[in-house]
Each structure stands twice: as structure tokens, then as C-alpha cells.
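[Meeting: bench + compute handoff]

Bench side (C.D.) handed over the final construct sequence. Compute side (W.E.) agreed to return the predicted structure before the next meeting so the bench team could plan truncations. Sequence as handed over:
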Amino acid sequence: MKSVSSNFLLKTIFAVVFLIVPTLTHAQTSDIPQCNTPAEKIACQNELNQVLADEAVAQQQLNSAQGQSASLSQAIAVLTAKIKTSQLDIKAKNILIQTLGNDIQDKSNHIAVLQTNIDKGKQTLSDLLRKTREIDAYSLPEVLLSESTVAGFFKDVDSFDSLQQSLQTTFYTLRSDQASTSVEKDALTVRQNKEMDAKYSIQQQEKAIASDQAQQKQLLSISKGNEKSYSTVVAQKATKAAQIRAALFPLAGSKAIPFGDALGYANTVYKTLGVPQAFLLAILKQETNIGGNVGTCYLTNPGDGSGINTKTSQSISNVMKPSRDVQPFLSITSSLGYDYKTTVVSCPQSIGYGGGMGPAQFIASTWMLMKTRIASALGIDVPNPWRPQDAFMAAGIYLSDLGADSSSYTAQKNAACKYYSGGSCKTSNGSSAYGNSVIALAASLQQDINALQ
């Protein structure tokens, strides 16, 4: 038999939870980086503003130099302007890193305080609930038969209202602190990503400066001698550019194409969707590396999704998931006039299914979901997953949806991880290693792209 206080307590707790669930408070966060003292904050911001203004002027000078007719002096002026612009950009990012570092520490400290408050709130809540159980422990016979128990019971009942108020306050404070912690952690992640982006950008800028300074030194040595020697340098660059354009760019599930063609397709994607060329090329190259490891397969049995390995002629199970991809695959090949039994797809890896089609390695069900957008972007009727330009656009659309239309390091790495695994970067499923590899490939490919400019 429950005592009188039990029902009242239960109703009160439900009422408190109902009232406080929708009333989450959010911590106020500032998007403006801060330094330590007020004076330092002002100085940092003023310096950052000045550096950014100087960088804008340097960029205008670079644009002007690049617009002049080709000559030795113009080439030196371009390199000088590029170096100056990069140096100013590094300076601005170093200031940003300093201010972000201070803000990150402040937010980390705030999160630690909130977590301490949450721990204390949980303990207080536990103590209050234990006290209510003590009141609830009184049974009616005990109250009627014991004078001392009656006195203790009514003493506790007299304080029951204040106990309920404490419960409500504790619930509210606990939920409020939890909500604030979540907001602060999100803001902290944003700032940490900005800091990583700035550091990565500095590393790339430093490499670019070193390369530009080496070229500048070479050209300056020529200017002190015979300017006609510059024609030799121009010819050497032209030869290197021609070699880069002609070099074959490998593709999974398709023939390799000249790098110049691959870059042309990537330029179309960039103009349409904003996905950087080097990053898109890196994704496709990484997919090719993986495709080379798992080989290529034919689907021979639509009933169970099995097939054969084109390299070994061995029977392979799980070439395609029957309930998900077989019918879309048959529809795609039929619309293109292909024989599905001799159309290559990726073989399964150690777990799961294969079925990746062409350079972008999309499975058939995913391609069917995207084909209208691909056709619209390219102005064609029927997109072909094995045709390079179609695959480039398909990969670009998907990557854009994943946030790769940003030039930041963290956005591109996260997009690469999601492209690989469908989720954020993790060491456990190999996606983090995949993302790192893509970023490294993109940096290397960017050097080739720069050599063509």
C-alpha cells in the first residue's frame, strides 16, 4: 500500500519534467576571436584588419601583374606579388590562430565548469530523490502506532513543498547546463576546425612560397645576364605542362584518360558546383587505387547477386546486393544498350557487397537517385556511370552535398570520409586514413594544376 506522499511526489516529478523539457537555455557564443586582455583584443583585431587590407592590395597587384604581356620582368613581378600575398596571408592566419587559441581555451574552461555543475546537479538530484523515498517509506500502520514516527512523518511532510521546489530547480538547472554544454561544444568544434584550417593553409602557403622563391631566384639570375635565356625557361615550362596534360589519369572501372581531359571535367564541376578541382581529382584517384586492389567483376546471376572476377575468372558471391542494386543495375545497363553480364563493376571487399560502377564507383541504387541531377547539370538525356565526364559530375554533386564545396581543410576531409563510409572521420572504420590520403593527393595534384597555369 503506497502512502499519501507517493502519488503526490510522482505527479510532481512528471510535472517538473514536462515543464522543463522545452525550456532549454543556450549559451551565448561569439564568432569574433578574442585575445587575453581587453587591450590585447583590440590590438589583435586591429592588426588582423590591417594585414587583411594589405593582403587585398597585394592581391590586386598580383592580378595586375598577371594581366600584363609575358616577359621576364612580368614573370618576376608575378612571382614577387604571389610571394607577398602568401606571406601576408600567413601573417593573417597566424594572428587568427592566436586569437582562436585563446578563445578555444576559454571555451574549454567553460565546458569544464559546466560539466562540474552537471556532476553536482546529478548528485543533488540523487540526494533529493533519496529523501523523497524516505518520506514515501512511511506506512499508515507505522504512522498510527508510533508517536515518534508520527512526529517525524509530519515534520518531513511540512518540508515536502520545499523539497518539491528543490527538485524542480535542480531538474531545470541540470537540463539547462546540459543544453549549454552542447552548444559550447559545438562552438568549440567550429573554432578548432578553423584553427586546423588555418594551420593547414599555412603549411601549403609555405610550400608555395618556397617554390615561388626558387623560381624567382632563377629568373633574377637570368635578368642579370641575357634576357634571351628566358625563352629557354619558358620552353621548359611549356614542355613540362605538355607532359602533365598528356600523362594518363587512371580511373576505376574505365580506361585512363589524359590528365588535361580530367582537369577539364573537373573545371566544369568546379564552375557548376564549387568543388575544388584538385580535391575532386584526388577522390577519383583514391577510388581508383581502391578499385585496383579489389579488382573488377561481372554480375552473372541476378537472382543472388553473384558473378565472376574478370582477373581470375573465379566465381564471386556478393558482387551486388540483390534486393537493392540488381534491378537498378539491369535498368541502367539496358538504357545504355550494354550487356549486364559483360559490364564491369567493383568486386566486394572483405565484407559487404561490390557493385561500384565506373570512375565514381557509385552503386546502382545511388546512381538512380542522382541520375536526373547529373543529366541536368551536363545537359544530357541519359547519364552513363562509365563515361568519365558523367562520373566526374556525379562525384561532384555527391561531394557538394557532403560539404566539399568549401575550400577548408576540415570540410574537405570530412567530405572525403563521408564519401568513403557515409559518416564522419573515424580511425576504427578506416575513413580517417582515407580522408588523410585524399588530402595528400589533392595537395600533390594541385602542384600539377599550378604548373599548367
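W.E. noted at the follow-up: Residues 72-136 form the longest helix (65 residues). C.D. will use this when planning the next construct.
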